[in-house]
Each structure stands twice: as structure tokens, then as C-alpha cells.
Amino acid sequence: MSPNRLLAILLGVVAALVLVIGGFSVVLLLSGRGGDEGSPSGVTTGTGAGGSKSGAGAVLRLPGADPITLDPALAGDSTSAEYIVELFSGLVTIDQKLSLQLDLAESYEVSADGLTFTFKLRDNAVFQSGRRVTASDVQWSIDRAASPVPVGATQPSTTALAYLGDIDGVRERFFGQAPSVRGLQVVDERTIRIRLKEALPPPLFLAKLSYPTAFVVDRQQLESNPRNWTRKPNGTGPYQLKEWRLGERIVLQANQRFYRGAPPLPQVLYDLQGGSALTRFENNELDVAAIGLADIERARDPSNVLSKLYQQAPQFTIFYIAFNTKVPPFDDVNVRRALAQAIDRKKVATVTFNNMWLPATGVLPPQLPGFTAEDKSLPFDPAAARASLKASKYGSADKLPPIILTEVGGGAEAGIDTQAFLEQWKTELGLRVEIRQTDFATFLADQDSGRLQMFNAGWIMDYPDAEDVIDLKFHSASSLNDLGYSNAQVDKLLDAARVNKDPVQRVQQYQQAERLIIADVAWIPLYFAQSHVVVNKDVQGWFVPPMVIPRLRFVRLNR
Amino acid sequence: MTATAAAGPLDQPVPARGQSQGALLWSRLRRKRAAMASLVVIAAIYMMGIFAPVLAPYSYSQQDLDRQWEGPTADHWLGTDTLGRDMLSRAMYSARTTVIVTLAVVLSGSLILGNALGLLAGYRGGRIDSVVMRAGDVFAGLPDIMLLILINAAFGERVSSLTRWVDTHTFVSGLTATGAASYITVFGALTLFSWVGTARLIRSQVLQLRERDFVLAARAIGATPRRVISRHLLPNVSNLIILSVSGGLGAIAGSEIVLTWFGVGVQPPAASFGAMIFEAGSVRMFQTHPHLLMVPAAFVTALLFSFALLGDGLNDAVRGR
Amino acid sequence: MASYIARRLAWLPLHLLLVTFFTFSIARFGPGDPVSVAAGQFRDPQVLERVRAERGLDGSLVEQYVRWVNRAVRGDFGQSFLQQGYSVGELIRGKILVSAQLGFISLLIVFGLGIPLGLLAARASGSWIDPLVISVLLFMQALPVLVVIPPLLWLFALRLDILPTGGWDGLVDIYWIRGVVAVPIPDPHLYLPLFVLSLPGFASIARLVRVTALEVLREDYVRTARAKGLSEYTVALKHVLPNSLLPIVTVIGFALTGILGGAFFTETLLGIPGIGRFTFEAVRSRDYDVILALTVIVSAAFVLVNLVAEIAYAFIDPRVRLGAESTT
Lengths: 559, 321, 328
Prior knowledge:
The structure holds 3 protein chains of 3 kinds. Chain A is of the alpha+beta class. Helices cover about 35% and strands about 20% of the residues of chain A. Chain A is built from 18 helices and 19 strands. In chain A, β14 (about 405-410), α14 and β15 (about 435-440) form a beta-alpha-beta unit. Chain B has one domain: MetI-like fold (Orthogonal Bundle), CATH 1.10.3720. Chain B starts with 20 loop residues before the first helix and ends with a helix. At the A-C interface, α1, α2, α5, α9 and α15 of A face α2, α3, α5, α7 and β1 of C.
């Protein structure tokens, strides 16, 4: 007998084994799915997906990501905020035109000294459960957010001091020196009074109150279910959370009890699975998708179907290169200026990035009060750059100490533009700058410790006020000041602007500070971000705001 | 990321006499056409890398922002990338990175450790054996990618300040830009996990050999352990060592892509296949500008496939076929 | 044998302590911490200090580690910074389930197709097909996932438009015939990830089986058995099969541990909410509790699977005695 016969027998045996084990596993897997705790069985999931693909129905399908938290007091990232502003609400909000609007409050008054704000709540404001929202709910929620460890959370809020810190007593409460926030006072069931430490311009304080940190949560729910309440939060917002499967989907359902009228769109499905959203959009799996660099040309080409669905909108986000003005060689303003003048940001924005982003004209982005279209930044000018370098105390490129530019690298984040700048510094100034890419955690730690010489980063604004970028990033006393930039004149302007009640004058002060900052080259402002999306034609009323604001209730579906 | 384990026992043990092991292996390998062809491909890619500064039509970083994403043209044979850099030159310099990376790893000794520990454990047996093998269990059980990133974060900066020092104080230059620091750190760390497989393989081979007549005889006539190992054991496991090293080289070249993905590898603007694939590696990019992926993919696949074919050929040769 | 197993299991807790302390020290040694990552733009040093204190990240490394062990032995693996409001156990369970389902099916494919193909290739040994088959298999093994996925996605999802572009929707989909008859079919989201996951494994198993089968057929005891005139079935089942299976048992063991680690690239590029992607996210943001929990799971699984593989060895190959010269 031959070895081949032996092998043939073996083959037969193995094939039989495979069939038996395979069949057994299939049965096992099928039955296993049914018992999956808490989630619908595989069968219903399947039909659900099939249904959404063919009929699509009145469900808006959006790309999304898992929020870090749905607790308004804890959220500090835009992903979480995107859901929170639909699920919860606060005294005031910001509308599509970026103007302040009353939300849970129906009116407010400011005392003559500008220190006390008195809000009157709407009569019909209720939680999604139906319970009425009272002044003590507002008081409890803000006090909770400022408390050392909020009820229903495991750690203090990182946003409380930034957004509520102007309220009298919030600092003391946060650091455990007071049992409650003394600046909050319940006048009657529908009236709450908030006292500030110093008289801020009302629009600035109200803008801060429109951020999730000051949103209202349901005390009864939090106290009865402190561990798991964010999985089915009882908010006051236009939508309520119907389903959240980690990494798979979030389903929001219209809140029929919403005090400004039930939203027209009954259901919104966020697909959390990642991957290429545009590909899914073209497969009719999503109604909205972001456009990336690879597709921007196609989307703008009038002969392409995508161009009819394409929208672009500016964002309150600025990308920049920051210098550590305390370490050599960047303690010399001429070196900073030379580096800024030697790079052609406009070309990179228009050609390399295909006009996806706008070349920054200064520090204040478009749509923000104080923005002007004229270019205040240092223009690309190789000759001037070389002159600046010559005027520096080093005199020439080869006398400079080694320069390292740090940025977050890997995992789809590394910047192609930094490589373009590197080459320009080399050709225009004869300067070798080294890139050091680190992971995100290392980057933040190094940045906070002031170890970095220069770095590439971005800043996302949270409310439409120049204070949110200029004061926070450039005031020498700000805890968010990147690398210890300080200029007494800038500080003075910022201090004055912060409490200035004359809006026109206030904006002028910020613009003045902006010019000083640019002259000091504390940053090289690179680009203002723009958002690029395609939206299905049967979606009506979709808009891309420059910052996170509630928007789902303005959207309709025609199908 | 680990080398494929060679299966089955060795064909016949070779006592230390007559034609040398290496020559025998080479003569067997030379008869295998696939293995020789792959050796040529590997050599070609390595040569391309070593002589990249001479061969490349452009510098790896020279950019022309106005000529983004062009397909193959007369002056850019393989097209251009996002910054209008020449893809052919980038590919050549990427091969250079591969050369440096594989060298850095071999020099870091990570391919030797497993073999040494395997020999030691197998020959000495007893307590040493169980300590080595238990330690192996501990390290092999750790989630490697996770630890690689952490170790790189913890020690990467220290090592790169070292390479920076080498760059400025010795005749060597440009070491930092190749990311050699990351590779030394990362592969040094990878050794912690990867020595186990090789060590087990070598150990079991040594365990078998130890009981063979010629070793027993050598010991019986009072040969020193050193002599037994160098004269009788090493020649017989050297083939396995060659196998593990050649498999390791292919695996290292492959993991460069992976590590760059994690932001742990080459620092831009230095070219690497990993970075090129990374820049082009989305479906959308592939749809609009397929050459961005196809160019590095072709080189990488050719290289990895050649390493695999060579490994297979070596494996056969070692087993006397 | 029972005492051997008991000894190995007794070693497990010490093993886990060593492994987690090692991981924890390395994670803490480097720069960066989960608190500043989670705080994002709001990194007020005073506030972060408060957060660290509340989350048990103050004090020395050893203090923190002891605190963690104290909680962990009571089954509390803490809370993630990336997904607040969920315990680490809950988060990991869901992700591992997805990765494990995918990994398990792909293992079935790998062995179900790989073993028969390896035997077929062994039959063809010596003919002109042999080198061709080997080359093709080696090629499959050499293809990097990162290079394979974009073209596949482009072809099947964009060009032909027959498969979804990624995502996860359970294992089973219902196919309706005329809207009346429901036929359960494998979910279309599975095809691409299964293909990509199985390709290299399938090739390596086929090669392994081919080599081992050929080696075993040449062994003395097979020749002897055949010379004694035993029936082909007896030789095939009693001698060839068990001995060819030995190396495969080891491979299955390692493959099973591999499943728990997830498949990072496949999961990321194809949008599958599995453990591989999650691991990367956790490490990137230094989510200590998640990192440690993953270390515990992967290491424990490794030890247990190794033990099972050893026992399986002893059953298949009577020459192997447990404990003596067991690790091969």
C-alpha cells in the first residue's frame, strides 16, 4: 500500500471531523447568541439592520463615536458634548446663529452692580420622566458639578472651575472648604439667583452657562441609581437615550415632553463602528458623512453627484505651532519670527490640503466676534525670514542649538504639513529642525511639564467669545497657557476686556491683544479648521455649527 | 511577529567532521531555484537601500507642493505623494530604513538571546532549566503590543537622546532621523517576549541530542562542558539557529510597518515603507490614488515573500532535502 | 497528573502578580497619565491633582499597586477613564465576546480548511504542483493585513458593492425569500474580516500539516506497522493521525490565546468593536485599570491554555509524561 492511500484515508477522517466539529460549533454559536445578556438576540439584530438598509424609515443615521461620559458635569470633550446637548439642557443655550438664547429659563435680570443674575424658569419645563424642573433642581445640579466628587460620579469635574468658577463660592466648594456653593440661592420654586465673584459682562457669563457643566440633572435618579444613571439618563433635552450599545450604536428618541415642542425627527441612530464614513454614506448606510482629503476634489467637482450634497462650514478650531518662549533659541523673538516667515502656510492650506482648511489670518477664527478678514499674521517672506534670523542673537542657522518639534504621531494623526514646513525651514533658512512624534499621553505630559521646545497642536473653542482662546491661552496667569508666554501689556488688556461691559470696546481690546501676540510670535497660527460633509438629499435643515450646540431638533427627514 | 517554528526533528545529526555545516547547507540551498531567486530579490532590495543616496533620482524629502499625487510620469517613474515627493526615491530610502532597522535589531542581540537561553536550559537541565522555562512562561504570556507602546513611551526618549549624542559627537550622523532609537528600544523590548519560542525549540532539540550516543560518549571520556557544547551540540543546532535568525529578519522587516502605525517607529520625514503605507492606507485614498499604496505594497510584499521563500528553502536544506 | 495540574495552578496567582506589577511599573514609569488625557483641553494642574487623588493615582507606585491588588482580588477591576460609568469588567466582556466570536470562527476555518489542504499537499509531494502550492501558501502568509484590506474593501464594498464596508452586526442575518420565508445566513459584515483573519493562519497550518504528515510517514514505527500487515485504517488512525496532530495541538493552544488579544488592524480598519482596538486605545491613553485587567486576562489564559495543551499532549502521545520533560 502506498503513502498516498494512507493520506487519502486521513483526509477522509479529517473531513468528517471538520464537518462534525463545524456543524456543532455553528449550532453552539447560534444558540449562544440568543442568550446574550441584555441585548436583543442575533435574529432581531439582523432584521433591524436589514430594515434600516432598505426602508431607512424616519431614522436619521449619523456617524458617531462612544462618548467618554454622558454626565454633563464631567464631559470636557466634543464627542461627549455632542450627545449631552441633545439629552440635557441648561438655563441658556446657543442657537444656530450663535446668539445666546434662554432655554430652561424664560427670563433673567442682572442687578445694577452686575454681580447677581436672577433666572425665572419656564412653567412647562419638565424632565423626560415628566417631573417638573424647579429652581432647586438647577441649584442642586450646579452645586453637584462643583462638589469635590459629584453624586453619581467617581471623580471631580475637570470643567467646573473653567465654566462655573466665576460663581461666588464655587472654588471653595470644589476644594472641599464649603458644604455648598454660597452664590446659588433658590428664591422660589421657579426662581434662582446666581451671584458672581466679579462683575463679568453678561454675555460672557451666560455663554459659560450654556456649556454642559451647568446643565440640569435629575437629583432623584442620581441618588437612587448613582452607579448606572448615565446609561439611561433622565434629562431635560429634546432627545432621550433609547439604546446605547458600546462600540455599536446609540439611538436617540424624540422627547415628546420637550418644553419647546417635540422635535419633528422621531429617531436618530449614531453608528459608532468607525471605518470610512463616506464609504458607508455611498452605500446608503449613513445620511451624513465627513469628507476627507482623499475625496475633497470629488466632492467639489460639479459633475460629481456628491457635489450636490456637499456642505462646508468654518469651525471654532485653530491649529498652531507653539513656542516655548522661555528656552533657547525661542527666547529670542527674532528666531520665532524667522521660523514663522519661512513657511508658506497658504500654499500648504490651498494646495496640499486642497483648501480644506483656511490659512489662519490671526488668532480669532471666522464667525467669532472680533474676527476680521484682513491678514494680520506674518506673511511668507523668505528674505525677511533670513533677515530676522540674522538679526537674532545667534546670527545664523548653524549657530542655533538643536531644535525639536514635537507632535502626536501614529494612528492616523501624524501631520503631513509638518513635514512640508521642515523642508521649507531647511531650504529657506538652512535650518534643520527635527520632528519628534510621541503618543498622545506622552505629548500631553511633556506639554504640561513645559519640557517641549516647540509643538504642533490645535485648540477647540467652546463658546463664541474671544476670551475662550485669547485669555485662556495667552494670559500669563491662565492655567491653560501652553508654554508660559507672558507679556504684561497683553495681560493688562485681557484683564480689562474680561470685565468690560461695552461689547464694542471689549472686542477691540481683544483685537489689540491679538496683534501684540502675533508681533511677539508666541504662536505661529496655521489654519482655521473647516468642516466638510455630505448630507443626503432627503435630510432637511442639517447644519454644521462651528462648535457643539443642540441641532437635531431643527432637522427633518423627507422619507 | 514571531518566526515560524520549524516542525519535526532534524534529519540526521551531524558529528563534527568532514565537510563543514555551512558549506553543506549552502550546497543544498543552491540547488533550490525559488530560494536562490528570493535571495536575489532580498539582495536587490538591500542594495537599493544601501546605495539609495547614489541611486535615488531625488532626495527623500525634496518636495514640490504643486505636484501632489501625480501618477507615473517621465520624471517621476512611480509618481509623487501628498507633498509632491518622488515615490521612487521614497521607496529607495525606505529600503534603507529596512536595512538599518534589521541591522539595529541584529546588533541589539535580540535574535541571539533565545538561542543562548535555549542551549543553556537544554544542556544544564535541572533547576536552571526550570527557572528559564518558568520565566519564559511569564514573558510569553504578556500582551506584547501593549507593552511595546508603554516601554517605548517610558524609555524611548532616553534612548533617542543617546542616539542624538552619537549623531553630534561621533562620525555617525542621521541615526536619530532613521528612528533607530525607537527600533533599538522596541526590539530590545520585543526580545523580552520573543526569546521564549526560540529557546523552547532549541532546548527540546538539545534535550534530544544530549541523549545521543556521540554526546554521551564525549561526556564519558571526560570532555569539558564547553567542549561538548561547542564541538557537539552547537554544530547540530546551528542550523536551527540559522533558521530562527532568517525567519526573524523577515518578521522584523514586517513589524516595521506595524510599529510605524502605532507611532513608535521612524520619525518623519525619514522614509519608511510603514509610513508610506500609513499615508495611503485608507480605502478612500486607494480609490482615488491607488499608486500611493501599490508602490510600497509591492516592495514590502516582495521582500516579505522572499524572506518566507528563503526561510522555507533553508528549512528544507537543514532537514537534508 | 492531578497533583501536577494542582501545582501548576497554584503557581498562577504568583504569576499574575509578577506580570501585573511588571506592566504597572512600566506604565507608570513613562510620562503621561490617564487623568490628563481624559481632561483633554481642561488641564488645570490643581484640578488634575484633585482628580488623581480621587481616582487613587496619588502616592507611591507600590502604594497604588497594593491598592489595585486589594480591589482586584475582590473582583473589582476599577473604572475606565475612557468610558466612565462602566466598570472595566463590563467593558472588556463585551469587546472580548466580539473578538472571540470572530476569532473562533476564523480558527474553525483555519483548521477546517488548512488541515485537509495540508494533507492534499502532502499527497502531491514530489510532483510539479508541490512547489507551486508551497509558494502560494507562503505568499498568503507574507501578505501584510494593512496592505490587503484597502484593496479588498475597494473591490467588494465600493466597486462591486456586494459587502458592507465594515462594522459588526452579530453573527447571523436573516435573508427573506419573498418576504415570507426567513433563512438565517452568516451576517455579511463577517466575510471580509474572516477572510483577512484566516488567510495567514490557513496557509501556515496547511504547510505545517504537509510537513508533519510527510515526516510521520517516513518514521520507523509507521513502516513497522505497515510491514506487520496492519490494515491501512489502523495505521492511519492509530499511528499517523495522532503523531501528525501533536504540533497542531500546540498551534491551536497559541491560536486560542491569540483570540483573546484580538486583531488590532482588522478591527480598526473594518470597524469591529473588538478587544484589539480597545487595547490600543487603552494603552494610548494610559488607562491603567483597563491595561491591568487585560494583562490579567491574557496572562491567565496563556497559562491555562498551555496547561491544557500539555495535558492534551500526554493523552495523544504516551511517551510524554507530565511534569518531567513537558515543555516542548
